[in-house]
Design goal:
mainly alpha; two-stranded antiparallel sheet; 8 helices; 2 strands; globular
Length: 187
């Protein structure tokens, strides 16, 4: 049975997914996959470092909660089963070129503006770059439309950080799922 993104989030957020650590496939949360160094399937180490830096700028705590591992896992899966926001926004499959293109464009912008890698931007530089991405103020941007890339990446970060019982608790909101999730996200 295939669940829609809405059904999956309603039933417990980004719960347990299958990740490979040390050659063994195990079910764990993206946060645990990050902590345990799960193998990446689609994104390069450079893309992950840039994604984590940009993700932390868009939503602090998203890197630690496994934003890059979540996106990588979803990009490696069947696009029909994807839980990424992009699936619902009319972007043609596969989705990996969208993320890789956006991260490459952000990396080029970081080099042009600050003469440093995206992953090595200071908080101030990363905030300024994110603002320019969101507003579309980067003349040489060579990726997907930058405000759209910002929107999609931020939505994915929100799902990872707040898409389950722990996220609701972090916000001080009672978690009142109609159907209790089989596992708690982030633990």
């Amino acid at each position: 049975m295939s669940l829609s993104r809405r059904q999956f989030l309603r039933q417990g957020g980004v719960g347990l997914l299958a990740f490979t650590v040390g050659g063994c496939t195990q079910e764990m949360t993206p946060q645990e996959a990050r902590r345990r160094g799960a193998a990446l399937q689609v994104l390069s180490e450079t893309e992950v470092a840039g994604l984590e830096r940009l993700g932390e700028t868009l939503l602090p705590g998203s890197a630690e909660r496994g934003l890059a591992q979540y996106i990588d896992h979803q990009l490696a899966a069947n696009p029909e089963d994807s839980m990424l926001m992009i699936k619902y926004l009319g972007v043609p499959r596969p989705f990996a070129p969208f993320y890789s293109g956006g991260l490459a464009a952000a990396s080029v912008a970081a080099m042009q503006l600050y003469d440093t890698e995206l992953a090595k931007l200071t908080d101030e530089q990363s905030n300024a770059l994110a603002g320019r991405i969101a507003s579309g103020e980067l003349d040489d941007w060579q990726g997907p439309p930058s405000p759209f890339f910002y929107f999609v990446l931020r939505a994915d970060a929100v799902d990872v950080v707040y898409g389950g019982e722990r996220g609701f608790a972090d916000l001080g909101i009672p978690y009142a799922a109609h159907i209790a999730p089989p596992s708690r996200w982030g633990e």
